Structures are given as C-alpha cells and as structure tokens.
Amino acid sequence: MIAQTKTTKIPSGPARVLRYAGMPIFLAIVCLVLYLWVSSHKLDSIERSSLNAGFITLHLIQHIELTVVSTAIVVVLAVSTGILLTRPFARWATPVVIALANIGQAVPSIGLLVLLAFIWNFGFWPTIVALVAYSFLSILRNTMVGLQQVDRSTIEAARGMGMTKTAVLFRIELPLAVPVILAGIRTALILNVGTAALATFVDAGGLGSLIDRGNRLGRMPILITGSVLTAVLALFVDWVGGVAESILRPKGL
Q: Cβ distance 80 to 140 under 8 Å?
C-alpha cells in the first residue's frame, strides 16, 4: 500500500524530469528571448549603462537578498507564533495577534514601505521589516490551520503512550502540518519577491530600480528587462517552493 502511494505521488522517468526541469527550462528560454530582443535594439548611452551584466547582477542580488532575509525572518517569527497560539494557554491572544497581522497585510505595501522609511530610515532593514509585516499573515494562518487539522485522537494516543507535549509537537503535530505550513511559506516567498520590487523607492535597490528607471526615462528596453526579470525570479522562486514541498512533505502524505 505504501509503495503504491509513493508511485502515485512521485512520477518516474520522463514525467519526473519534466516536472522538475520544465519550469527552469522555460525560464531560461524566456531570458534568452529577452536577451535577443534587447540585443536587437540600438541602445543609447543611458540604456547601455543600465542594461549591462554588472548593473543587472547587482540589482538581482539585492532583490534576492531582500527576499531571502525577509522570508527567513518571517518564517521563524510566524511559525513560532503559530505554534504558540495553538497551545491552550495562549489561545486567548489569537484574535489580537491575527488582527495585528491583518493590519500588516491590509496596508498597501508601498504605503508601509514609505511610512517605515520616514519613521525609521531609508535602506535595507526598514524594507525587511515591511516585507516581514506584509507576508506574516500567510505563514501564521497556515501554521495554525496545519496544526489545528491534526487529528486529536492521534495526539491523545501519543500522550497515552507516554510522550511529552513537546515530543508530540515535534514528532507528530509539526510533521503532519508540514504540507500546509510549506504552502504558506511558498505564498510568502512570492509576496516578498513582488513587493521587493518597490524597495527602490526607499533606496533598498532590487530589480524595481530597472523598472523605475525605465519608466522615468521613457526607455522601454530597461522597463521591460526589469519587469521580465522580476517575473522570472517570482516564477523561479515558486518552482523552488514547489520542489521543497515535494521533498520535505512527510512520506505517505
């Protein structure tokens, strides 16, 4: 029975290769088409200063740093908070925490970025705080839902076998909640990639700098390059998240 379940969930041969390699191949083709399209244009000095390997690589790295750091922080905070709020002694605080998390996502992302920039400072860390606030709710909700969906009889059986509450949490509840939590993390990653494009307005760099520069200067190649690369990065991150879900999902689920 177990072997049949695994065979159904994980394709073998060409199907498996296509499942894992299809998106990277597609994105590579998109980048190649973008390169050929830009190369077919006679670029002026302003366009050449923006559409060179050094400039694009710098802003791509900045964008990835913003996404990775903010997601790592929000995963630690949101998962920990979600676990805490599902414990009996802390459930009274759930409405308050959810309301605060809702505020972070309800406020327009550009408004939150600019507000933090004026209150605190411009640059990297205020942007990170804004990204964390914006993506906190998706991971928090998924963590809570995943833990709450664990069968109570399974938990009671584990407790009856002599397992401590901590052991039940880490050996039963969290493993069973992993698929739902990973879906929330995947959503947060996509949110952060898209929102990080706005970081250019608070001097935090990122691919949004290309989009903003192309728009302000009326240079279509710069604008399209920034937009396409941001979309490619978002799709690539989504693919990575999908692969991580397949690998980290507990066997048999």
A: no
The pLDDT of 214-233, averaged and rounded, is 92
Q: Can you give the length of the chain in residues? A: 253
Q: What is the architecture of the domain spanning 2-248?
A: Orthogonal Bundle (1.10)
pTM of this prediction? 0.84
179, 245 Cβ separation under 8 angstroms: yes
What pLDDT, in 10s, does the model give residues 27-53? Answer: 999 999 999 999 888 888 888 888 888
Cβ contacts of 146 within 8 Å, gap of 6 or more: 176, 177, 178, 179, 180, 181
Residues 236/106, Cβ–Cβ less than 8 Å: no
CA-closest candidate to residue 135, choices 72, 59, 201, 180:
72
- What CA–CA distance (Å, rounded) separates 152 from 100? 29
Rounded distance, CA 173 to CA 60, Å? Answer: 38
